[in-house]
Amino acid sequence: MQTIMHISDLHAGPPFNPDKAELVVREAQEIKPDLVVISGDLVQRAEFRAQWRQVRAFIDRLPQPRLIVPGNHDMPQYNQLARYLWPYRRYRKYITPNLQPIFECDDMVVIGLNTARSFTVEGGKLDPEKIAYLETTLKRFPASTCKVVVMHHHVVQSPGPLRFRKEVIKGAEETLKALDRGGAELVLCGHIHTSYVGNTLEFDPELRQGTIIAQSGTTTSRRGRLWQRGKNSFNVIEIEKEVIRISQRMFIEDVARFVPVAEHVFPRRSSGSYYLPRQERVVTPTRPQPLSEAPAPLDTTHD
Known about the structure:
With 303 residues, the protein is an alpha/beta fold. It has one domain (2-293): 4-Layer Sandwich (Purple Acid Phosphatase, chain A, domain 2), CATH 3.60.21.10. It has 6 helices and 12 strands. The strands form 2 sheets. The protein has a 6-stranded mixed sheet with strand order 3-2-1-10-11-12. Strands 4-5-6-7-9-8 form a 6-stranded mixed sheet, covered by helices on one side. A hairpin with a 2-residue loop joins strand 4 (102-105) and strand 5. It starts with a strand and ends in a 36-residue tail after the last strand.
């Protein structure tokens, strides 16, 4: 079994909550994950070195190995020249020079994607070149391998009031198809500061098998949204031979710690538990008979 601890949207700087960060470190030491994943927005304002030093000190206390991808806050927001010419200079210096890392271990691969872009402050994008890279990389690994993808921005719209929803990443529709064709079992993301777990089949029923989506809320900041307003959360994923288990952990004031608030179990793609041939996926309903063609009622009278 492989265990992943998935945290996101740390937002070092004014929104950062050191007390919650300390609890996250303790949780990580108890969980002893095989991999810690951080899906972007490490700092609030990438222009300030102090925020990078703060988040670096926090990350250094987490177990290794770690896989980290950047978010839109990890590029300068108001220094336009830096944003266009060297958007990841501080990220590369303080975190890692690799913007799209890959982690491999026994029967599992985790592929990091950089979805942030310098032409917009908030939104993300996967262009055709990156989508092709994603699919090609996924197909390098056999079907028996659990293929996990990490990105900052969300590819599906989680539940919630329309006025609070953020647009999904540019290229989301093609990304869902590439994930499906490449055999991705799980996507880990963040960005909207709300925890959500679901399957891409809910959004595109034409997909072959679909991909599990595990979205983390903000783990260490005061910027939780929607039903997690003011809340902090992270996910714990256990990958077994037949199933993937996802535990959504949230900080609960009454007990002053992170506790499971929801648990999900999904069959593995490789287990064949929910494999259906394509021709069986679409069921065509029979056309109702017109009244004139309806069969005559049964004669219930007795001689």
